[in-house]
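Continuing the batch. This is chain 6 of the set; chains 1 through 5 are on the previous pages. Same settings as before, nothing changed between runs. Recording input and output for traceability.
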Amino acid sequence: MHLAQLNIATAKYDLEALEMKEFMDNLDPINAIAESSSGFVWRLQDENGDATAIQAFEDPRTIVNMSVWQSIDSLKDFMFRTHHKSFLTRKKEWFEKATEDTYVLWWIPEGTIPTIKEAIEKLNDLRENGDSPQAFTFKSNFTPSDL
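Output for chain 6:
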């Protein structure tokens, strides 16, 4: 099994605004780090190699990031042990404070790619029911054997 993840964020400003420039300018380098990270399998992207133009929610300022990893540890290594961490710690500069979960993790069979629809259903499941083997956060230690 592989680990799928979805995270969303609602920008404080239009993505083209000067206030978002540093974030937007670093998407390609951060995505390149992800793609070269051990355990990386796949990430959502449009024909330009970006996911910010993919509108999955009514609010055009809500952006999505979705990827697949070989394990929780490989995702954590990318998130917290690369240059990505410096942008994660600055999230409040660019994005609205969320009042509910903004990311979800779930196990998928190797060789499959999750859809945005499936990912949003997982996020909604997490928001409605809390952590479970079907939809969880880093606070839980669910493994594929828990399914």
